[in-house]
TrEMBL record:
SUPFAM superfamilies to which the protein is assigned, alphabetical: MFS general substrate transporter
Membrane topology label: Multi-pass membrane protein
A Pfam cross-reference name: MFS_1
Organism: Streptomyces bambusae
Keywords: Antibiotic resistance, Cell membrane, Membrane, Transmembrane, Transmembrane helix, Transport
Domain Major facilitator superfamily (MFS) profile: 1-446
Mitochondrion recorded as keyword: no
Gene3D superfamilies linked to this entry: MFS general substrate transporter like domains, Multidrug resistance protein D
Main localization, broad class: membrane
KW Transport (keyword) present: yes
The protein's name in its UniProt record: MFS transporter
Intracellular or extracellular location(s): Cell membrane
Segments traversing the membrane: 20-45, 57-80, 86-107, 119-138, 144-167, 179-198, 204-226, 247-271, 283-301, 313-332, 344-364, 385-402, 422-442
Length: 474
């Protein structure tokens, strides 16, 4: 539900603009008002899960998201919708930040954990594609309000199910990490950083606005890092970053997601503006990616990770993503979906279905039960930063290329296609860089070492082991 909301709205933007009277500049904030708090609060929410219990944080976030969805659907003007979307972003961040940490704690056995992370990765990866399909169907059939109203019954059922199914946990206690100054610094830094990136479309990368706010965000982030090195109970224990595999996986994920956004955003525009697809057919056109992701992340990827290790699965996954984006970089203005687009989407979906479970496994490889919430929050934060940065950079370059071609007399379809081609190729380059970094930096432990590490890891409280069964072996 939370992941779908990132893309389900984009399909409905023209209807929302017509229904509520948004200006062209203001319409972008229907998306940005969600992204800014979502990207800014993931780290803080993840640490709160470690301190006061992930189940409690998870249910609170679900409740806020569901209530905000109701307010979004009831909105009668731009101000109410933007405020409700901001609240929805808060709920989404609080819910998402602790989810991967709960998965890791609930499934300590390697094969079970690999399958669980595969399901988690499918939801994260395929949700964007499914959101395009759902957004088009709901908007065309019954109106844009229902892209928000549909969350209400789902959210209520999810809250009730979480309250019943998830075992309670107390967390390590607020006394173990109540770093209020650190929380303020990192939240302000991330929110300001995401805001700066999403506003580059209106101000430009070299503008005083972008440079000034970007410098302020970096200064706040540097102050946060200094604070964490000195604080008695840091919000982000620096030991979480000492694992080369974990920290490397998070950085590689940001690059991969930045490159992939040339597909998720610009391929939709190519289908609509060049090939003439409507919302419903656009969603159906992207749907094979979700199918390929599901086929890999739910079935084959967990088995391969358990047998060969996440690095061995990640490398071919990244290579397939880069190949798919490079193929999209060759789409012609008079192209055909079956001939030019579909053959590129299949390796994209296959590669993402392999890469995401492997990255999630690597990112959480060094997390202890006390730190799994903050590690989960960091993993999702890097994904959001990569998405925001990729969208801003690639769309800016695509627009600049399109404008240059138009000024030289190219037709509108040819100019648009030229811009999209450039963005796809740069996206392929970003993923290729992430592949090189993964090959150079990441290492997977041998299967026997992975099993031993899991056996030595204390189980999270919410696995509710009987007394004595969770003790470490001598």
């Amino acid at each position: 539900m939370v992941v779908l909301d990132g893309t389900v709205v984009s399909v409905a933007l023209p209807s929302i603009q017509h229904g509520l009277g948004f200006s062209s500049a203001g319409l972008a904030w229907v998306v940005n008002a969600y992204l800014v708090p979502f990207g800014g609060l993931l780290l803080l929410a993840g640490r709160l899960g470690d301190l006061i219990g992930r189940k409690r944080v998870f249910i609170t976030g679900l409740g806020v998201f569901t209530a905000a969805s109701l307010l979004c659907g009831l909105s009668q003007g731009p101000a109410m919708l933007l405020a409700s979307r901001f609240l929805q972003g808060i709920g989404g961040a609080v819910t998402t930040a602790v989810t991967l940490g709960m998965v890791v704690g609930l499934f300590p056995e390697p094969k079970e954990r690999a399958r669980a992370i595969g399901v988690y990765s499918f939801v994260q990866s395929a949700g964007g594609s499914l959101g395009l399909l759902a957004g088009g169907a709901l908007t065309q059939a019954i109106g844009w309000h229902w892209i928000f109203f549909v969350n209400i019954p789902i959210g209520v059922v999810a809250v009730l199910a979480a309250a019943r199914v998830l075992m309670p946990e107390r967390g390590v206690g607020l006394g173990k990490g109540t770093d209020a100054v650190g929380a303020l610094l990192v939240t302000a830094a991330l929110m300001l950083g995401v805001y700066t990136i999403v506003e580059t479309a209106g101000h430009g990368w070299a503008s005083a606005h972008t440079l000034g706010f970007g410098a302020a965000a970096l200064a706040l982030l540097l102050a946060f890092v200094v604070r964490q090195a000195k604080a008695a109970h840091p919000l982000l224990p620096l030991r979480v970053l000492r694992s080369r595999s974990a920290s490397g996986a998070m950085g590689i994920q940001a690059l991969m997601v930045a490159g992939m956004f040339s597909f998720q955003f610009l391929c939709v525009l190519y289908l609509q503006k060049v090939l003439g697809f409507d919302e419903m057919h656009t969603g159906l056109g992207i749907f094979p990616v979700a199918v390929a992701i599901g086929a890999l992340s739910l079935t084959l990827a967990p088995k391969l990770i358990a047998r060969f290790g996440p690095r061995a699965v990640l490398l071919p996954g990244l290579a397939l993503i880069a190949a798919g984006l490079a193929a999209l970089g060759r789409v012609p203005a008079g192209g055909s979906y079956v001939v030019d687009v579909l053959p590129a989407l299949l390796p994209l979906g296959t590669g993402f279905g392999l890469a995401m479970p492997a990255l999630a496994t690597l990112a959480m490889s060094a997390a202890t039960p006390e730190d799994s919430g903050i590690a989960s929050g960091m993993f999702n934060t890097m994904q959001q930063i990569g998405a925001a940065f990729g969208l801003a950079v690639l769309s800016t370059l695509a627009n600049a290329r399109t404008d240059a071609l138009l000024s030289h007399g190219a037709s509108a379809p040819s100019a648009l296609t030229g811009g999209y081609q450039l963005a796809f190729r740069i996206g392929a380059g970003l993923v290729a860089v992430s592949l090189l970094l993964a090959a150079a930096l990441l290492r997977s432990p041998a299967p026997a070492q992975r099993r031993a590490a899991v056996e030595e890891m204390p189980l999270a409280e919410h696995t509710a082991q009987p007394a004595g069964t969770g003790q470490r072996k001598s």
